[in-house]
Design a protein that fits this description.
Layout (H helix, E strand, L loop, with lengths): L1 H9 L10 E2 L5 E3 L2 E8 L2 E7 L8 E3 L4 E3 L3 H10 L14 E4 L7 H8 L5 E8 H7 L3 H15 L6 E7 L2 H9 L4 E5 L16 H7 L3 E4 L2 E4 L2 H26 L7 E5 L9 H13 L6 E3 L16 H18 L2 E4 L9 H7 L4 E5 L1 H14 L1 H18 L30 H9 L1 H6 L10 H10 L1 H23 L9
Helix pairs in contact: 2-5, 3-17, 8-9, 9-10, 11-17, 12-13, 12-14, 12-17
Length: 489
């Protein structure tokens, strides 16, 4: 409140307080200048007073500048206030990625990470998600920059170019200022029968007739094991080394590097994990996190499917291998995996990286079901039409027959769809079609109405995310006995 009082005394005569809603946490003073965020008729702007008005682009407001929340102004903001720019955060004990497909979820995420010491990765988007939402790396980061500034969040955050597969994708993310690259090796991982490969002499010497002790777990390789490792991961490891040495190593620690080998059908065995980790080390590749393919199913927007006892036994070994090689496990498709979060917290000893994305979209759509039943019914029906096309982008086992038909569900019960796994996946994977659907005149069929609704109920959406993402963190911390919030979220 003190900042607000000081700002009020510095406001020019042309600034009529009754016309603006000032966000108190956004108030910053730099020499003789003030910069803060305001809401005018439902739209947020940067308000600038003093010499800093020369740096931003906007319209004159009689003694102050009213600047749009665009890329040019976001770039200036990151230059002036480093806390609004991403940094390499994977050096922290615990990190958590919260992809936001809509550019409106960060306010709720910030509430969570004020209460937990896990460092957030607020900007996290894959090429697939960018294409389906028609956004860019810059769009995603700019939305986070303005949210962090508005809320005065100074604890730091990361920006992850997620599941990138090509050098040009890595370049694009880095050029936009992203501080983390998740390299998806799936295009270079071989499948199918293992040919009768010739095992190179140096590989034989490294692995055959040796036993590797990893926290009491014995790992050994037969010739057949090595041939399989080379067949499955050989090209992928070479590609990872090229990307690392060309793009990551020259940054001198300013860019975090994650390797993803999870986008495959078969689980990563402990021996394969050890082989991948060891060969990356031999190649001089330093990874901060690595995502193996765990046993069971990590499907989008629903809980873990699989044998929990087997998962725990294999998780123990994977976590031990990660500790041996000095990185942390990364858990992909981590949204709503509530049955395994305590196990992850426990066996990683509180050192984890978990990624979520689609669950934020589902909470946004649950809000629609709560506040505009008619709009939700239109979207649900459209999603059923588009589901066969959407399945091409995601692995799900959705059974549409298990989803109650719209005509049997009352308006009051529409939010209950989000307690049904099949309905959750229906809405989860059709987001791109829903957001991009257009009428015959070229106008958006749903998108404009959706954003109007979400802006109107921004506080409620933030509260919903605070509780939902908070539940993820609470369980992870519970398993690792790490300190978080004491009260129920």
């Amino acid at each position: 409140m003190r900042k607000l009082q000081e700002l009020i005394t510095a406001l020019p005569e042309g600034f009529k307080l009754e016309d603006y809603q000032i966000y108190p946490e956004s108030i910053n003073r730099l020499d003789d200048s003030w910069i803060f965020m305001v809401k005018v008729e439902g739209t947020d702007y940067l308000a600038v007073i003093g010499e800093l008005t020369k740096k931003f682009k906007g319209k004159d407001g009689s003694g102050f500048l009213l600047a749009d929340l665009n890329h040019e102004n976001a770039s200036v903001l990151r230059e002036i206030f480093p806390f609004t720019a991403p940094s390499a955060v994977l050096g922290a004990e615990r990190t958590f990625g919260v992809g936001d497909r809509l550019g409106i979820a960060c306010f709720g995420h910030i509430r969570v990470f004020r209460e937990y010491d896990a460092r957030p990765v607020f900007a996290q988007q894959s090429i697939r998600e960018l294409n389906l939402t028609q956004r860019s790396f810059a769009d995603v980061l700019d939305a986070v920059t303005f949210a962090v500034f508005r809320e005065g969040f100074r604890n730091g955050f990361g920006a992850d170019g997620d599941h990138l597969k090509k050098p040009e994708e890595v370049e694009a993310a880095l050029e936009c200022g992203y501080t983390m690259i998740t390299l998806d090796l799936s295009d270079h991982i071989n499948k199918g029968d293992v040919p009768d490969l010739e095992i190179p002499a140096e590989i034989r010497q490294r692995y055959l007739q040796k036993t590797f002790d990893v926290e009491g777990e014995k790992i050994a390789f037969s010739e057949a094991d090595l041939k399989e490792c080379l067949h499955v991961y050989g090209k992928a490891l070479n590609f990872a080394a090229v990307i690392y040495h060309e793009y990551i190593a020259p940054a001198g620690g300013r860019i975090n590097f994650e390797v993803s080998i999870d986008e495959t059908e078969l689980p990563t065995t402990p021996a394969q994990h050890y082989f991948v980790a060891n060969e990356l080390t031999v190649a001089g590749v330093k990874v901060d996190t690595l995502a193996p393919r765990f046993c069971g199913e990590f499907q989008k927007g629903i809980d873990y499917i699989g044998d929990l006892e087997r998962f725990e036994e294999e998780l123990k070994i994977h976590a031990a291998i990660a500790r041996k090689f000095g990185y942390r496990l990364s858990i992909h498709s981590g949204s709503d995996k509530f049955s395994i979060f305590e196990l992850i917290g426990k066996h990683t000893r509180g050192r984890f990286h978990v990624k979520t994305a689609g669950t934020n979209w589902l909470e946004a759509m649950r809000l629609v079901a709560m506040k505009d039943p008619g709009l939700y019914r239109e979207i649900h029906a459209y999603a059923l039409e588009k589901f066969p096309e959407a399945k091409a982008f995601y692995h799900v086992t959705t059974d549409l027959g298990r989803i109650p038909k719209l005509e049997t569900v009352s308006d009051e019960d529409l939010p209950l769809y989000f307690q049904n796994d099949d309905a959750r996946q229906l809405i989860h994977i059709t987001y791109g079609f829903i957001l991009n659907a257009k009428n015959e005149n070229g106008s958006y069929r749903f998108k404009t109405r959706l954003y109007e609704l979400w802006r109107k109920h921004e506080d409620l959406y933030s509260e919903m995310l605070y509780k939902h993402i908070g539940k993820h963190l609470k369980l992870l911390y519970s398993g690792s006995n790490q300190g978080g919030v004491e009260d129920e979220i």
